[in-house]
Design brief:
By secondary structure, the protein is an alpha+beta fold. It is built from 4 helices and 9 strands; from the N terminus they run ββββαβββαααββ.
Length: 235
């Protein structure tokens, strides 16, 4: 067998997962693991790792999420955020990482394993541009938050943060957590209920708590919102 040689440098491929959810009292939160080995031992990073020989990057991302946090699920939708290619982003080799965003409807309890010594949900606000993060994961997190904010303007992605049935108030809390600002309840309700195919009224009510029973909605058939939602403050 003839050994393969090339004039080009060898490049390694990894996959990372930016798993996010909205937690009561914490707002927009991201699943992080503490690295158990070099490089960046003891620093926080996204679940991720090298792509195996017979894997594509999405399969590798799902495997790494499962191996390092115990969170698995074929129904978890992964959105490819982009490729990160800076020559020295990993001190070991020339490594290209393909980052993915996963939106979860609840903060599933993680269990650290593999080369992660700790796994937990952490508020995004305390991590953006943080030097506590390994590699270039601070930049990846900034990009993921920007992508989420824009996605909530034009798509129905916000419903994936929620259970199968939810109230308008709960949907508004998702927007407020991702956009980082309060929204006028009345204007918000008119916009989301007026967007064709965004929501489906289940005809059911949530009983309990203060005030009138709240109407329960489910995600509609639409994947895009028209007209788009706006992050600008109501005038």
């Amino acid at each position: 067998m003839v050994a393969y040689t090339s004039e080009y440098p060898f490049v390694y491929l990894t996959a990372d997962v930016v798993a996010v959810t909205v937690r009561p009292g914490q707002g927009l939160s991201v699943l992080m693991v503490k690295r158990g080995g070099a490089p960046y031992k003891g620093r926080w990073a996204f679940p991720g790792g090298f792509v195996d020989d017979r894997e594509d990057v999405e399969r590798a991302a799902r495997r790494e999420l499962r191996e390092e946090t115990g969170i698995a699920g074929r129904r978890i939708q992964l959105h490819q955020l982009g490729a990160y290619t800076a020559p020295r982003r990993d001190p070991r080799h020339r490594v290209v990482s393909v980052a993915h965003v996963a939106v979860l409807p609840q903060a599933l309890a993680p269990t650290a394993a593999d080369d992660a010594v700790q796994a937990e949900w952490m508020p995004v606000d305390g991590l953006v541009d943080s030097r506590r993060l390994a590699f270039d994961h601070g930049q990846i997190l900034c990009d993921a938050v920007a992508w989420l904010r824009e996605a909530l303007e034009r798509s129905t992605l916000a419903t994936r943060f929620l259970p199968a049935q939810f109230t308008i108030s709960e949907l508004r809390e998702v927007y407020e957590a991702v956009w980082g600002r309060p929204l006028d309840p009345g204007n918000f309700q008119r916009k989301v209920t007026g967007a064709d195919g965004f929501l489906e009224d289940t005809g059911e009510r949530r009983i309990g708590g203060r005030g009138r029973p709240a109407a329960l909605f489910a995600a509609g058939a639409a994947t895009e919102i028209w007209p788009p939602m706006s992050r600008e403050r109501d005038r």
